[in-house]
Amino acid sequence: MMTIGITGGVGAGKSQILSYVEEHYNCKVIRADEVAHLLEEPGHECYDRIVAFLGTGILLPDGAIDKRKMASVIFADEEKLVGVNAIIHPEVKKYIVEQIQKEREVGCIDFLFVEAALLIEEHYDEILDEMWYIHTDIKIRSQRLAESRQYSAAKIADIMGRQLSEEEFRRHCSVVIINNGDLKTTYRQIDEVMGERK
């Protein structure tokens, strides 16, 4: 089983690419965002630590974390954002390492893909066989975000300004997939790369 990390800037179309590999290859996809949401549910150590750090004011009546409240608290306070990330990110990585080990033991799939926005920053190269960068031109990414998420130009610029540069993504990833809108071309690139790994 080969493990592959997928990363790229916001609006690069990573979800589209992962849907394609799920449909066409004997693989499993782990999305770091989904893992984080799972670990933030009651009953997990991650949940307990977040509530202890931010207080019970972020909880819904049923005890679950109110994601909107938590977001408004942490994005208004850099220290709290750093603190919550320091709780969540290592736990997500630990969970993913455990899943990789389980899949290796079971031996049913050929590939395991991990999608994470902070794949490089969180040093996923330490646990994955290789990392792919999904490149999409900034103009196209901005257009996608404006249309699909109704983000303002200022919000898009702010998000992109906080992400890694093109050079950093390329420096850390051994495969670059160009995803500028022609899906046939994108899928052909994926098939070529996957064909080399069989």
Describe, in plain words, how this protein is organized in 3D:
There is one protein chain. The model has no long low-confidence stretch (mean pLDDT 94). This protein is globular. It has helices at residues 14-24, 32-39, 45-54, 67-74, 78-106, 138-148, 153-161, 166-172, 183-196, and strands at residues 2-7, 27-31, 111-115, 130-135, 175-178. The chain has 2 domains: 1-26 and 110-198, Rossmann fold; 33-109, P-loop containing nucleotide triphosphate hydrolases (Rossmann fold, 3-Layer(aba) Sandwich), CATH 3.40.50. The protein has 198 residues and is an alpha/beta fold. It contains 9 helices and 5 strands; from the N terminus they run βαβααααββαααβα.
The computed structural class is alpha/beta
Strand order of the largest sheet: 2-3-1-4-5
Q: Tell me what the CATH architecture of the largest domain is.
A: 3-Layer(aba) Sandwich
Alpha-carbon distance between the two ends: 10 Å
Number of discrete domains: 2
CA radius of gyration is: 18 Å
Largest sheet: 5 strands, parallel
CATH superfamily of the largest domain: P-loop containing nucleotide triphosphate hydrolases
Classified by CATH, the class of the largest domain is Alpha Beta
The ordered H/E elements are EHEHHHHEEHHHEH
Question: What overall form do the CA principal axes indicate?
Answer: globular
Strands, total number: 5
Mean pLDDT equals 94
Please give the share of residues in helix. 40-55%
Helical element count? 9
The CATH topology of the largest domain is Rossmann fold
How much β-strand is present in the residues?
5-15%
